[in-house]
Fold this sequence. Notes:
This protein is of the alpha+beta class.
Amino acid sequence: MLAFAEFADLCESLEQISSTLEKTARIAAFIGEIEDDDDLYNTILFLSGRVYPEWSERDLGIGIGIVYEALRISTGIDRREIENLIREKGDLGLSAEEIVGKKKQTSLFQEELTVKKLREVFDEISNLSGEGSQKRKTILLSELYISCTPIEARYLTRLILKEMRLGVGEGIVRDAIARAFGIESEVVERAYMVTNDYGKVAVSAKNGGRDALLNMKITPHIPVKMMLAQVAESIEEAVEDIDNLGVEWKFDGTRVQVHYANGKVSIFSRRLENVTNALPEIVSEIKSRVKEGVILDGEVIAVRDGKPMPFQHVLRRFRRKHGISAMVEKIPLMVYFYDMIYDGEEIIDLPLEKRRERLINSVGETEMLRIAKQYVTRDPDEIRKIFDEAVNAGHEGVMLKNLDSKYIPGKRGKNWLKLKATMETLDLVVVGGEWGEGKRSNLMSSFELACLDEYGNMLKVGKVATGFTDEDLEELTELFRPEIELQEGKRIVFHPRYVFEVAYQEIQKSPKYESGYALRFPRFIRLRDDKSVEEADTIERVARLYEMQFKGKV
Ligand code: AMP
């Protein structure tokens, strides 16, 4: 059985290695030695910073508050001291390590913590719900802290808060599995694309080698990463690059992947979260109008009087856990389907043209369920006309698609190009904020924004205080309240969990922020609840947009 201490040692050594190749080699050597399937599965997931695959309905539901309380209970150190330490270290993992190191009671005959034991406790925590569950979670977590060594406490804390920060991205996990079991990276990646679970892929690779991976297929009710789009420089360039060109409206909504098989519908968001329960009217419409045994790709939009409502309304529906039927009335939704990846069998290798034929054969269109109209044309004037129509109808622009291309899950490529009406916005992590003044002192009034470096560190680029309606600020205050890590006067530090899309007038070079850049006149566009923190924009993109300003391309 794998000791959690061994896993923590691995993490510590990975933190000290900066070379990707060395990291990969170190992980490959470690996982190649693991004999037990469950230990291998858990190690892969934990290294990726997850307790459950991102699409799983299961979650620990542990916020900062529970961590503070569990640390207090397990060490006897009071909350103020814990907060001071966090302020000093600026990192919860390191703080937990020090706190556990200082702990007042040490038991001599401490049982060794194993990866399996952690899994058991995590499963128990994720099964808890309802009254008393927070308390029980706190107790279970404090028991874990009691059996932790300081270094284990560092990684336990980071793991439950989904902040491993080991610089172990999907590419490294893929290559480490490939190397550990002697299989080409492409084969490992393909298996991942269709299962979305590197833990499962690693166990299959260990037990059945290359053939087992080649046999892994898309399965209904397990989401597949979605194909993504690249920015088109211009219509002319797209026409030049793509021979067989299909033009569709770029709908201003949010992505969904709809699975309908075995009498059941599952709907996943762009982040592959299961949002089925929030969309009952769509589920029942699909059951009556869609052929069974399919996986469809499309966009959900909110509509009122035939016009799309702002995209936040759709996300409001997605987030809803209670009072769903009232929301069905208040925010009516519809879906535009534009692709299909499963039709009784995986069809991602068929060209888009063929997938679309199958899509048309599978969906009986209604007011609520539509198939996105597609225009096959390479005439720039005609494309411009379609673009104007889309924008006039309240949508974002157009998508230019290569009709000969395969569906490549999770990849941003030249086969789907997006052409938007507005200037490129930035998706930034909200890392801090400020309370308002006077009458508004109970509302947050501004938010600090950061981009990411290649290791996932957050680098500040500015502060946004405009573009919010009163309703936005009320909602955001409630949303961010549980994420408060520290407060000093009016200033707040958040646990990084949410992403804002912001527009700005200009990007400037500035020594004021650690990123070296500052946004001039940033304006809030929307909460990108469909994006995880890891998907926020990078410093590289900020630098590129900065450079592009001088080329007149923005
Ligand atoms: P962006 O989020 O700006 O990278 O743009 C890509 C997104 O546009 C996709 O993930 C979809 O959610 C959305 N989208 C809207 N209409 C379409 C369409 N017709 N085809 C593909 N994606 C679309």
